[in-house]
Design brief:
This protein has about 425 residues and is of the alpha/beta class. The chain has three domains: about 150 residues, Rossmann fold (3-Layer(aba) Sandwich); about 90 residues, Transcription Regulator spoIIAA (2-Layer Sandwich); about 140 residues, 2-Layer Sandwich (Transcription Regulator spoIIAA). It is about 40% helix and about 20% strand. The protein contains 15 helices and 18 strands. Strands 2-1-3-4-5-6-7 form a seven-stranded mixed sheet, sandwiched between helices. Strands 15-16-17-18 form a four-stranded parallel sheet. A three-stranded parallel sheet has the order 10-13-14.
Length: about 425
């Protein structure tokens, strides 16, 4: 029998995603014959050793766009091995970058296959084709992937998702790590800088309360005493239209989880990685959430203090909504951590002044200001817009807010990354 090994690239930056991926792969190899699986911080060295012992080596990466620049040399090395061993070595990429730029992932980064979404559904089918199938045939049977066909043309297979996310869990035996528990997937809003809604074509799906509580109980039995929830909009769980909070569903989720874990865990909802939209921060939601959660920080995405710019980027709320959310959060005992994006496309001097005014006012009210720089991510309407630059008025305000001890964020590093992403997207030169 042919023997295959799956090599998953470990990166601290996307460790939570890797826990879910590892969970999928652990289930896969446990139910198949002739397949091994390892996690490696240095896949290049691992592959060099593996090709001596295995008939096929499958290398997998989960990629966020800002990561690709630190991986170029590593990917070039893997591509050289691929050229030597042909289809004995297969390179697969998933994650937001592969979903946003599947063609570039294949043609420029040198991967054989880009997985665009729904790993629990797609990966077992894809791996079966690679491990047990005939790669001389096309990968048409596998949904959600992009690859080169026999003529060299990049093809994308059909869109397919489950009605509700299920399958993988927030714990990896191989990594001996846990991750936040995913409660929802996708987003119905259309913020022009964001990849999340477009990956799943604006569909929003929720894990059932029973499944979430069962996963939390499994973590509790492994000794986990702080349960973090994972969601694009933490207060959006169970919303029938994806645009208004479902207070009863949120309460049932938290209550059931708490009871499944014998009332002996700390629950975190509304802080990383389940930040919330300001239009979902209502009195009714906060009255429920404050009874169950242990986090006292509430991460709120304002993004701008300018109503004109909020309309331009498609946020779906105004600046008044941000002030209301902040006041309600403080009233219920939370410290708001408010996100702002600097250098958004179309930003004018007036927009900058409106945002500076809001940041200063929120800091005076007791908020933490968390700064970001706009990055033109592939697969978004803003992917070819100029990279964000931090206006001098922002720097002046940020210095004042820092003196108050109310400033967080990595806007300086993101300004440099934004420039690199823009150069990558607007260049036609090969990378790998």
């Amino acid at each position: 029998m042919r023997r295959s090994i799956i090599v998953l690239k470990y990166s601290e930056d996307n460790r939570y995603t890797l826990v879910y991926l590892s969970s999928i792969l652990e289930s896969y190899v446990a139910s198949r014959r002739g397949v091994d699986y390892v996690v490696s911080r240095d896949p290049l060295s691992t592959v060099v050793r593996a090709v001596e012992s295995y008939d096929r080596v499958i290398v997998m990466y989960s990629l966020m766009t800002p990561q690709i620049f630190s991986l170029i040399e590593e990917l070039k090395g893997l591509r050289q091995i691929k050229l030597k061993y042909g289809d004995r070595v297969m390179l697969i990429a998933g994650g937001p970058h592969a979903a946003g730029d599947p063609r570039g992932t294949v043609c420029r980064l040198g991967f054989d296959i880009a997985v665009m979404r729904e790993g629990e559904l797609t990966l077992p089918k894809l791996l079966d084709e690679i491990v047990y199938g005939d790669l001389s045939q096309e990968l048409e049977k596998v949904p959600n992937v992009a690859y080169r066909d026999s003529t060299g043309r990049v093809r994308e297979t059909w869109f397919s998702v489950w009605r509700e996310p299920h399958g993988s869990g927030p714990y990896s035996c191989r990594l001996n790590m846990s991750a936040p528990v995913e409660i929802m997937r996708g987003c119905s809003f259309a913020c022009k800088y964001c990849q999340t809604p477009r990956i799943y074509r604006f569909r929003v799906r929720y894990r059932s309360i029973c499944q979430v509580a069962t996963q939390c109980r499994a973590l509790y039995r492994r000794g986990v005493r702080t349960i973090r929830f994972l969601a694009p909009n933490g207060f959006g769980y169970g919303s029938p239209d994806g645009r208004t909070p479902a207070v009863d569903k949120i309460e049932k989720l938290l209550r059931t989880t708490y009871e499944y874990c014998e009332r002996n865990v700390k629950l975190v909802l509304g802080a990383f990685p389940s930040e919330v939209r300001p239009d979902f921060v209502t009195r009714q939601v906060l009255e429920v959430v404050s009874k169950y959660v242990d986090n006292r920080r509430l991460a709120i995405g304002a993004q701008s203090g300018s109503d004109r710019l909020l309309r331009l980027i498609g946020r779906g709320h105004d600046s008044h909504c941000v002030y209301e959310a902040v006041d309600l959060a403080i009233e219920h005992g939370f410290t708001p951590v408010v996100d702002f994006i600097f250098g958004l496309p179309g930003e004018t001097e007036r927009d900058v002044e409106d945002t500076v005014k809001m940041m200063r006012e929120l800091a005076r009210r007791g908020c933490i200001i968390r700064g970001h720089t706009f990055m033109p991510l592939p697969g978004t309407p803003f992917e070819r817009e100029p990279p964000g630059k931090i206006h001098p008025r922002y720097l002046e305000a940020l210095r004042e807010i820092a003196e108050l001890g109310r400033l967080e964020g990595y806007w300086r590093e993101q300004e440099d990354i934004a420039r690199k992403i823009h150069e990558y997207i607007t260049s036609s030169s090969l990378v790998v």
